[in-house]
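Hi V.,

You were right to ask for the full record rather than a summary. Here it is.
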Amino acid sequence: MNMLKEYIDFEKNNITLFAKQVLSTDYYEEEAFSKLLDIYMENRYYNFYSDEATPFEERIFNHLRKAVMKLSEGEDESVKDRLIEMFTVFNYVLCLDGVKTITYKTLVRLVSEYHRNLYNLDDVTLFREEITKLLKNIEDKRKKFFDYFKTSDFEIKKYTTSKDNLVDVELKYNIKFPRLYSEFAIDRVFHEGVINEDKLLVEYYLLTSMIINDIRGCVFDRFYLIDFATSLFEDKERLAKLLEISSDDCFKGQTIFKIKYEDYTKYGNDIKNMIRDGYMFAVKVNDDIDKNDFILFEMFSYIIVDNNSKFLKEKNKKIIVINE
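Predicted structure:
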């Protein structure tokens, strides 16, 4: 299951329910709002147009505004009025969605006042009760969603790197084994073969929750170096199962698979195919690699070396060190 996609779909549905409640039938039109919502999701969750030199929130509204203008072309005033109100409601969506930080009670008060003015109402008690119930239901479901990731058996360990916005992560286990097993034997089993491949499922799921928290905090410039088992190329079914977790563009955009140079020489074509599918890779090399071979590594996002490597003298921005 792709939990990141599940979460984004969940929040998309929350926004739809919220907009329907706030705008009601006179100003909510499903087809038009769906188009605006798609544009919002592209910007808010996938950080489209991040190369534009405008603040995040302003960029979202710039693209929404352009969409409203396009949808308004040739329409009568009643349609234009609905589009303007559907555009306006995204001011409150930003609060619902964590882009703007305000209290729960403040959001209820603001949208209640907006609804009062929109429909020229004297009393919005019923609306306030309904929107409060909806917001509480959304928050309860959010909590339940994040509870899925809680575990006392595993944790993600983070390591800094020579790049400020690049974090190396590793899955650590908190499982107690019988004394007859040595630490070396346990560690070897944990990092090799089928168990290692299954371990990645846990690691990717836990990492998904970290990526979601980054997105909710509007952090799109933090990237994670994560483990990958090239032995999965020998079992396409297991590989497909693992990649299902990581197939969302949000995951692809913030994660970089770590492999060794020997993995590249053995599975080069498979790795190239994954890169073409939008995945990113970093390759770990030793000093016995010829410097001229670096031209082969143009496809990789980073080249990982030891902290005493001779290659650190090279003026290559892709060369990094993991601080363990």
